[in-house]
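Minutes, project check-in
Item: structure for the 186-residue chain
Input as provided by the requester:
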Amino acid sequence: MSAPKKLRAGPESELTKLKAKWRGLSDDARSFWSELFVSDISQADIRSQLLKKLQVNLRFDKQLNAFRQWAEMQAILDLEAEQQANDEERIREEFGEDWTLDQIREEVIKRSYKRAIATGDWTSGRKTIVQDLNVKKIALDENKFKEGLRTKLESGLASLAEHIKGSAAAQAAFEAFEKTIAESTK
């Protein structure tokens, strides 16, 4: 017996149309609909109002429930995006524009250690330690990779050096290339 095919809404489904319209609604309109969704009004009445006011014909409660979940997730994502923008602005004000991700990561880890000690939140402190060690392990792995790459390149270059001993131009190009490799694999 074969598994039943999952129904998939196309790009012009009523649910897709509602999502597109939702994105274009004002904050007041979204608030109106959000309050309506959690009110005691029946699903059928809400679907009827959606048809009348937004020209979206959700025929089943399941569609309205799916939309509600989507709208809740969108609200969470919007709030997170707003918080990230605020955090970024605060960081820029405190530390300037020139901080790299590594510098920010180090500052976060340093502050997390201090917060754990100040509050006695040892669970949080252990999590900070794990993250700190992960960052250090990645840096160590990166250094090992670069060292292995440098070793292989140097071995290949030594072999190449044997073949170009008679040409001064090739020798000069070889030495410049060797310097470039040494710099790029630090």
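Outcome recorded: The chain has a mean pLDDT of 85.
No further action items on this chain.
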